[in-house]
Amino acid sequence: MSSISHSFALCHVPSRDSLTKPSYSLPQTVKLVHIPSSWKSRFNILCGALSTRNADAFAATTPTGGSLSNARDKVLLSPELADGRSGSSVVSAMASTVMEPNSAVHEEFTQGLGILKFLEGKTYFVTGATGLLAKAFVEKILRVAPTTRKIFLLVKANGEAEAMKRIKNEIVECELFSQLREMHGEKYRDFIMSKLVPVVGNMCEPELAISDTELAARMADEVDVIVHSAANTSFDERYDVSINMNTQGTLRMLGFAMKCKKLQLYLHVSTGYVNGRRRGVLREKPFYMGQRIAEEMVTFSGTQESFPPPKLDVHAEIELASEMARTLAADKDADLKMRELGSARAKMFGWQDTYAFTKAMAEMIITDYKGQIPVAIVRPSIIESSYQEPFPGWIQGNRMIDPLILYYGKGVLPGQFTDPQAPADIVPVDIVVNTMVGAMAKHGNRPDLELNVYHASSSVINPINFQEIFEFACDYFTSSPLKDSAGQEVKVEAMKYFGSMENFSACIEDAIAERMGLSGLGASSDPKRFHKLQIVHRRKVDSLIRLAKAYEAYTFYQAWFQNENTQKLMKEMSTEELKTFMVDLKSIDWKNYFMNIHIPGLRRHVLKERM
Predict the structure, then answer these.
(1) Quick one: which H or E segment has residue 455?
(2) How far apart are alpha carbons 131 and 99 in whole angstroms?
(3) Does residue 139 contact residue 388 with C-beta atoms inside 8 Å?
(4) Separation of CA 424 from chain center
(5) Pairing status of strand 150-155 against strand 265-269
(6) Residue 370's closest CA among 24, 12, 137, 11?
(7) Element of type H or E holding 269
(8) What does the record give as the function of this protein (predicted)?
(9) How far apart are CA 85 and CA 515, in angstroms?
């Protein structure tokens, strides 16, 4: 390990046992009471450790070189699979025994969860408001619950005018809200602007950088539900940037939640991939402070390690990231070294990358600091375009699996560094939103102190693998091909799969050289043109190799996310709620989804083609 990774041993933080936690009273909703100064100080120290650093100051770059965790080295089965069955066989058995929503058990819940009643007149505080998921959440709430009082949206901006401009451009005018626009006609803008309240702030700074103290006090008085969706999702982000946003940002949100006088629920959006390098069928269990997946892997694999995995102290990791950022401030390679530090720390403790690790530590923070705040955690897997609502195929941005599909359709990616049978755990964004709303109503209506986790995932209930996705993509692009820069239709062939990076690289180099005309072009014929084409060729090849390395932990993934809690939620919903808040992933025909919904959606919303 590099000297950078060794430096964590120099960090020291007080014992968690020395902290005094606040007391709460919990009648029907959470009520704020006095917080001891010792705990406030602790919050200030932890939340402000990186206050001088702005997350946006570090530009996200394409993944740097260096191998990520290899999911093929060991397949670790969770305790549920200890009987020796393979993960896929257990998944098949589980999928076949899932109870349909109209079963006898469902008849016990004819009254449902009371979702619409719960939503009446509520006030929300939402982070990540201009991102895919939070934006879809806001649209759904305003469409099904027009009596919503206010939705406070945390927006990073230079002043109120810029924040309002972002809300208008990125939300009010967004095509996602077209159905809401049709519902309200000429009154649409008045309606939506009467509900949305931009809050100038920053997740990466103490007190969320909300400088408007009157607005902050108003929010503390009025907010019923907090939805924390903001995150830095780059797999290989600088460690200080990722931990500040994902881990400390969650701590700051909890600090604000403690000020809310009538808070009924804190809904935290995590990711199924916080499960790290675990293998097998994984249940919806919360993380406890200091939990190490590396330790579980040693325990369940039965191997004898010379050096046991080190203890995980989340607070020490925060201090380490901050200290190393200061130490490397003048280093021209600071970005690369801070990315390598995050990757090294993640793998040391059993996670595949910095993103999953810092999100897992965020869950540990929640477990340790939530006190008596009612909390629900929703862990989506790979969020993709909408299945039904508000219309099929809406998506924002070029998301995880989408670059692979589009590069393939453009003829640039004829092969992939992937286990074709690995689960590609896809979930449409509208189903994630409905899961969030269902969990919100269930635990907001009946607040309890148990930490409830929901996997919004398909790998157990309706599994699909990478080979099936690219077979659908092949069928689609064969019948509806993309066009190249010369206007010629691109012909695709069946995707090739490689378990070796060396073989994958060779395939990509040859394919791109052929497409660029380098194969038959000699340096002697036109030296300048040949040299320029070589540079472009190398850049394209290196970009695809970096992408394959960044995705390696996911394209060779050997775990399936059990969603028992989500299934129970579905069984408690009434027939009408099941229609309005569709969460039944088992009903999705994946071929239809990819060929008629998702890939056409990518062409319209990502490639900006006119359909």
Answers:
(1) strand 452-456
(2) 34
(3) no
(4) 14
(5) unpaired
(6) 24
(7) strand 265-269
(8) Catalyzes the reduction of fatty acyl-CoA to fatty alcohols.
(9) 45
Residue 598 structure tokens = 């998702």
- CA angle (282, 283, 286) in 5-degree steps: 115
For 473, the 3-state DSSP assignment is: helix
CA trace torsion 528, 529, 534, 540 (10° rounding): 140
Q: Locate 66 and state its tokens.
A: 């260096």
Looking at 122, 150, 347, 359, which residue is catalytic?
A: 359
Q: How far is CA 224 from CA 118, 120, 123, 203, in A?
A: 11, 11, 5, 20
The per-residue pLDDT for range 531-573, each reduced to its tens digit, is 888 898 899 999 999 999 999 999 999 999 999 999 999 999 9
Number of residues written out for the chain: 611
Amino acid identity, residue 382?
I
Q: Is 65 exposed, middle or buried (0-12, 13-18, 19+ CB in 10 A)?
A: exposed
pLDDT at 52 over 90: no
Cα–Cα distance, 609 to 516 (Å, whole number): 24
The token duo for 492 is 């695709």
Count how many Cα atoms sit within 13 Å of the Cα of residue 102 in the half-sphere of its side chain. Answer: 4
- Residue by residue, DSSP assigns 396-436 as -S--TTHHHHHHHHTTS-SEEES-TTSB--EEEHHHHHHHH
pLDDT in tens, 171-183: 999 999 999 999 9
pLDDT of residue 91: 57
d(CA 424, CA 415): 17
CB-based contact 490:476 (threshold 8 Å): no
C-alpha 145/C-alpha 573 separation (Å) is: 17
- Given a contact cutoff of 8 angstroms between Cβ atoms, the answer to whether 152 and 199 are in contact is yes
Residue 281 · residue 75 · CB < 8 Å: no
Region for residue 375 given its phi and psi (left: phi exceeds 0; alpha: psi -120 to 50; beta: otherwise): beta
What's the predicted TM-score (pTM) here?
0.82
CA separation for the pair 272, 282 (Å, rounded): 9
Q: What are phi and psi of 402, to 5 degrees?
A: -65, -40
Place of tokens 């098949």: 92
Name residues whose C-beta falls within 8 Å of residue 182's C-beta, 6 or more positions apart in sequence. Answer: none
- Which position among 239, 273, 355, 497 bears the catalytic label? 355
Tokens of 103: 């079963």
A 10 A CB-CB count for 93 gives 12
Please give the span between the terminal C-alpha atoms of the chain, in angstroms, as a whole number: 52
Is residue 141 within 8 A of residue 119, CB to CB? The reply is yes
Number of helices (H) and strands (E) in the chain: give both, helices first.
25, 13
What is residue 154's three-state secondary structure? strand
Backbone angles phi, psi at 208, to 5 degrees: 60, 15
